[in-house]
Amino acid sequence: MNSPPPSGHADGPSDEPSPISDEQLESFLREAAEGGGAATPKEPSARARMVAARLRDQEEPAPWRAPRPAPKRRRRWGTVVGVVALAAVAVIALRPSLVTDHLPGGGAEAAASPTPLPAETARPTGAPGGTDGARQATREHPFRGSPALRWADGADAIELPEARAVAGMSKADAELALRRTKEFLVAANLDPDVIAGGRPDKALGLLDPEAQKDLLPDQRRGLREPSREYDPTGLFSRFDPDEVRLAGEVVKVRGRMSLAGGKPGEIKVHADYTFVYPLAKSDGGDHVERTIVRREITTLLLDPDRWYATPGKLAIEEYKVNTFNTACDVYDGYLHPVFPEDRTRATGPSVDPYDRSGEMRETQGEECGTVTRT
Fold first, then answer.
1. pLDDT tens, residue by residue, 119-145
2. How far is residue 41's CA from residue 53's CA, in Å, rounded to a whole number?
3. Do 157 and 31 reside in the same domain of the chain?
4. pLDDT digits (tens, 9 = 90+) for 95-113
5. What is d(CA 67, CA 50) in angstroms, rounded to the nearest whole number?
6. How far, in Å, CA of 27 to CA of 24, rounded?
7. Are both 177 and 227 inside the same structural domain?
8. Residue 20, domain extent
9. Number of domains in the chain
10. How far apart are the first and last CA of the chain?
11. pTM of the shown model
12. d(CA 7, CA 79)
């Protein structure tokens, strides 16, 4: 049985070694983009990072910045990895307690025993409300004043949809694709060792070295030598252990996952989740700041009879990330929550990091903005 090429055609040439010269490949890709070729590879999204600091005080918004996109790269198979804008900052601009404390179930009593939200099954129609941003988070109450107080904890929040046979692959294959995607999300965003700055080896081990000939080397390079172009926080939530530690043991999570079929022998899983990390300084103190990370990722489970693929391993078609309340212009492989003494002034538009009703923010500029709460 002959393995198909990474471009997705079962009768094409092998990628390693390739009998096609670089000039022939460029000609093929150009013809495909103009409609004359047999396939049109997807272009990757812009790699960017838009991050910033919080307010110097509640009257001064914190900045976020959207760096220039990184150069696009050709991939060796039909679907490619894309990275879009990392977003932004967090400040508290309003005091919802002025209203909610006077409503039934409002105030301190509601904060102590919040009603859990049902699982998210579709995109919300608006931003969550009813939180008191004036109530300061502490190590004992790290989600006080945050909509995340009512969110599910950690891996339990990542619920799998019902599996079904798609793209010529079985229900069991679909179950595996969903399960592996959850395992990747947990290993990349919820593993305590990774959050504490460790290497995400378990997450990397779930990815297919046959299908991810560029992504895996890029991520390993970013972990060794992080930079703006090779930034591991695009896929992994990591914090500098010399700077901050997780306040408590809980990360709040909210989002949803869906299943679809792609090309024959290609199961697609799309995940859209927001992770809320409460963090305190490593040298002590009760003050807690929250960093919020929203991630969209589309994974593929490929049929090795049709694709160059390793059985049971995932490929990543595309990923996007928006981060909130992380320091500006820092590319050292970590996210950096901003504490009051580090707050700076910003002048850009505002954004609510808990608003999951819209598309992920993708920006190309260098502007700074504000957020309404953390």
1. 999 999 999 986 665 678 999 999 999
2. 38
3. no
4. 333 333 333 334 443 445 5
5. 6
6. 5
7. yes
8. 1-40
9. 2
10. 54
11. 0.73
12. 8
